[in-house]
Amino acid sequence: MFRYIIRRLLASVLLLVIISMITFAIFFLVPRLAGATSDDLAARYASRAADAAQVHALSERLGLDQPIWVQYGKFVKTLVAGADYDTGTGTDHCSAPCLGYSFVTQNPVGPELLDRLPVTASLAAGACVLWLLGGVATGVMSALRKGSVFDRAAMGTALAGVSLPIFFTGLVTLSVFSYSLGWTAPGGSYTPLTQNPAQWAYDLLLPWICLAFLYAAAYARLTRSGMLETMGEDFIRTARAKGLPERTVVVKHALRSTLTPITTIFGLDLGLLLGGAVLTESTFSLPGIGKYAVDAINAHDLPKILGVVLVATIFIILANLIVDVLYAVIDPRVRLS
Amino acid sequence: MRRRTAVPAVAVGVTLGMVLAACGGGSDEGGDNQSGKAEAKQNAAVGQIFKPSTKKGGTIRYANADDFDSVDPGDTYYGYAWDFARYYCRSLTMFDTKPGDEGNKIVPDLAESLGTPSDGGKTWTYKLRSGVKFEDGTPITSKDVKYAVERSLDKSVLKNGPTYFNDLLDLQGYPGAFKDPSPDKLGLKAIETPDDQTIVFHLKEAFGGFDYIAMLPATCPVPRDKDTGSKYKEHVVSSGPYMFDTYEAGKSFSLKRNPNWDPATDPHRAALPDRIEMQLHVNANDIDNRLMSGDLDVDVQSIGVQAATQAQILNDPNLAKNTDNPTLARTWFAAINPDVAPLDNIDCRKAVLYAADHDGYLRAFGGSVGGELPTSLLPPSIPGWQDIDLYNFKEHKTGDPEAAKQSLQACGQPNGFSTNLAYRSDRPTEKAAAEALQASLAKVGIKATLKGYPSGDYFALYAGKPSYAKSNNLGIMLHGWGADWPDGYGFLSQLVDSRTIRESGGNYNLTVKDPEIDKLLDEARTKTSIEAQQPFWAQIDKKVMEDATILPGVWAKVLLYRPTRLTNVYVNEGLGGYYDFVQLGVQE
Question: Which has the closest alpha carbon to B569: B98, B2, B255?
Answer without folding.
Answer: B98
